[in-house]
Amino acid sequence: MRYRKLGSSDLEVSEISLGSWLTYSGGIDADRTRACTEAAFDAGINFFDTANVYGQGAAETAWGEILSAHPRDSYVLATKVWGPMSDDPADQGLSPTQIAKQIDASLTRLNTDYVDLYQAHRFDPAVPVEDIVEAFQKVVEQGKARCVGFSEWTPEQIQAAIDIAGADLFVSSQPQYSMLWQAPEAQVFGLCAANGISQIVWSPLAQGVLTGKYKPGQPVPEGSRFASADMAVSQDLVYSDAALEAVQRLVPIAEQAGMSMPTLALAWVLRRSEVASAITGASRPEQVHANAAASGVHLSDDLLTAVDQALGDVPVTEPTLAPGAQPGILHR
Question: Which domains does the chain have, with CATH numbers?
Fold first, then answer.
């Protein structure tokens, strides 16, 4: 496993990290959650990403029990705030009151005195940017988080926060990024790099589409992610005939290079120096080790050209969303 510096912080994070959205929030049982987490340590993964809203605290609670068996300085722990935590409409967002409340609740569930990275899960247009920045600054000043970051903020939102906080407060950005969703390259990557902010990318396997298991013209496999009604937005993003056909063109490219499709897809996002880590999910320990194998894999220029040609005309920056849907909400 190789490690990269996280933005302007002193944190070193593994190139492959373990996320807990669909799995440790209740998707798999406690024994498999523990097995996958321990497999991550075995594979050299030191970066664990969760959120308060995953399973309404269940994911944090699971890791609070499991990770506490390991020395606190042996792993980098990240969580997030923004999503609804109860039926109360006020129990969400990025108000100073909510941030102060949710960081304490997260620390209790995670069984730790601090998180290494505290992130705004999304932007909150109902709260002045000045108040959001001040609230996150206070979390750091109180020692409850070593660093802070954000997820899925637009370039305009990022710049507004930097104008207020300076270039030292935020150290990470967490956008969706994969072969099938390359939008962050256009503006977010450059803006963040210029201000010492690294990318921690989510859905590098495009919700599993880049594994090659979904075939064009065939029914969605039972038990797969896209068999769930909750994945409707994701289907609009990456589950299209054009995308599935492109993935099938990528399969022989991976095989000729002697690697699996997940390895190719993960190595592809890690080819960018702006990316500090790729967040992966796993429901079995062997998946953890398979994902970790992508760390340090070099893709030649010829291979990257072949990938671009295989993707062809697949739209990778402007997906069609369901009416009223927002990228990255239901499927993250």
Answer: 3-208+260-298 (3.20.20.100)
Taking the alpha carbons at both ends of the chain, their separation in whole angstroms is 25
Active site residues: 54
Alpha helices in the chain (DSSP H): 30-43, 58-67, 96-110, 129-141, 155-165, 188-193, 232-238, 241-256, 261-270, 285-292, 301-311
> Are the C-beta atoms of 166 and 190 separated by less than 8 Å?
no
φ/ψ of residue 272, rounded to 5: -90, 125
Summary mean pLDDT of the chain: 91
Q: What phi and psi values does residue 31 have, to the nearest 5 degrees?
A: -65, -45
Question: How many whole angstroms separate alpha carbon 69 and alpha carbon 71?
Answer: 7
Residue of 147, 114, 143, 175 whose CA lies nearest to 9: 147
Q: Which two tokens stand for residue 6?
A: 């996280």
Q: What angle do CA 263, 49, 298 make, to 5 degrees?
A: 25
Q: Tell me the pLDDT band of 317, cut-offs 50, 70 and 90.
A: low
The length of the chain, given as a count of residues:
332
Q: What is the pTM of this model?
A: 0.92
Residue with tokens 């499991």: 66
The two three-digit tokens of residue 292, written as one number: 């970790």
Indicate whether 229 pLDDT > 50: no
> What is the tens place of the pLDDT at every residue in 126-151?
999 999 999 999 999 999 999 999 99
- DSSP assignment of 39-71 equals HHHHHT--EEE--TTGGGGHHHHHHHHHHTTS-
Q: How many CA atoms lie within 13 A of 17 on its CB side?
A: 32
Q: Which long-range contacts (CB under 8 A, 24 or more apart) does 215-221 make?
A: 215/244, 215/248, 216/241, 216/244, 216/245, 216/248, 217/241
Q: Give residue 332's pLDDT band: very low, low, confident or very high (50, 70, 90).
A: very low
Torsion of CA 252, 286, 236, 94, to 10 degrees: -140
